[in-house]
């Protein structure tokens, strides 16, 4: 949409257009962090407002080859195509700290990860349809119950 980001308030049914800005045109992914809209670009993390777009985190290892970005409890999480999960902790003043691999240095425990969701645990959907659940950085075993497994028979 030409580098514009449109926010929609469910309660007030109000929309707001942010941008367009040159930096939003290069967005690889975006997430809402607290009351901020953050986009991931090749330059790093950009905070977008109605009138500006400023870089708040320079590109680092956790921002290379991003598959997915999410925010939870004031923290920013990035899942890389290598299967690494980086956490950028909230620090005072609404800023983000330095990203660290949540699994441990140089560990890629979510290889093949295509999507993620966070609810205190991090749930990662893999390319093969399997789901991995991580709690406090460690793999947690779980079983899905009551779901019918449907195989996709592509020819």
Question: What does this 3D model show about the protein?
Answer:
The protein has 155 residues and is mainly beta. Helix content is 0%, strand content 48%. It is built from no helices and 16 strands. It has strands at residues 5-9, 14-18, 29-33, 36-41, 44-48, 53-58, 66-72, 75-80, 85-88, 90-91, 95-96, 100-101, 113-118, 122-126, 131-135, 138-140. A four-stranded antiparallel beta sheet has the order 3-4-5-6, with no helix packed on it. It is globular and about 45 Å long. The N and C termini lie far apart (35 Å).
How much is the radius of gyration in Å?
A: 17 Å
**Biggest sheet overview:** 4 strands, antiparallel
- The H/E string reads EEEEEEEEEEEEEEEE
User: Which spans have pLDDT < 50 for at least 5 consecutive residues?
Assistant: none
Return the structural class: mainly beta
- Please report which band the strand proportion falls in: under 5%, 5-15%, 15-25%, 25-35%, 35-45% or over 45%: over 45%
User: Tally the helices: what do you get?
Assistant: 0
Overall average pLDDT: 83
Helix fraction bin: under 10%
- Strands ordered across the widest β-sheet: 3-4-5-6
Can you tell me the overall shape? globular
